[in-house]
Amino acid sequence: MSGIYLHIPFCKQACHYCNFHFSTSLKLKNELLTALLQEIRLQKDYLANETIETVYLGGGTPSLLTSQEINQIFEHLYKYFSIKSDAECTLEANPDDLTPQSLHAFRQTPINRFSIGIQSFLEADLKYMNRAHNVQQALQCVPMTQDAGFENISIDLIYGTPTLSNEDWIQNMEKAFEWQVPHISAYGLTVEENTALAHLIEKNKVSAPTDEKAQEQMLMLMKKMSQNGYEHYEVSNFSKPNCHSQHNTSYWLGKKYLGLGPAAHSYNQVSRQWNITNNAKYIKSLQNNIIPTEIEQLTTTQKFNEYLMVSLRTSWGIDLTKIKNDFPPQYYHHLIKEIQVFLNTQKATIKDPHLCLTQQGILIADYLTAQLFYD
Fold this sequence. Notes:
Shape: globular
Oligomer: single chain
Number of helices: 15
Largest sheet: 9 strands, mixed
């Protein structure tokens, strides 16, 4: 089983913290969608003989697409790939794009799951992040989506912003619990290089987030999620039982996936490839029937490190038996040696045959993973 990701690189406006590839100009939208359809055809053999169980439209802001454009994309996917009849088909959406009319139109497409980027119900937060929607739209979008007949809904929340008090963070979570959404993704605000937020902080125009506040609010998050029946199955992801994101889980399980669109990445367990991060060059290349991609053949060490990176973020953790069976002996010996300090400091625990992070370990998951890499 495999998945397909399609990157739709357009947004109404730029969020200050975002470092994904996107454009706020829709001028090339039609040409890019035509190129995307061409790439679907040219990539038809990348996942040869694989059944597709998930399709994910991310971005950018895929909810800027019309239902007709979405249906056109799926018509090409169905033509060139074997897609399960009950495949999870996710559309990332911004609250300001969701109306009764647009949701009715989306019902006429294969989309059966929404990932809604609410981020906060606090006006000061939304302004700090330069989100395109307002509080009223944030409060209306989920009930509206549910009323339209969509039950499989995930919402994104961001914590750790300088404008978010602990009391406000609790209220943000409580609002999400009221709706009983089956899935919640919650991310600590990070300042990425060359983003608007990084430049604003450098010029002292806005306050910077702190690690202390992020960790405090992360602990609050884990406690509240557990109290409300959500499983903490990945560092930033929580779900009701049997409501994991199938698409993202496939990444963490190391399954094959195809990425389509500018800046999209693909992985077939042997190599990794990524498309050019430029809309105009992407379009021109596809017009000449050339996929604008770079390919990297993965070494044993890269495969080992990537497995650690994705699996240690999950509740099921690193399968020590897999390490022993799938990699040369030195990799297993290296891992066993390096994990001792984390076991001794209770940052990790062994649940035979898996190595899993504890709550304290989750707070510094990226740091711990880097310490385990085989160099």
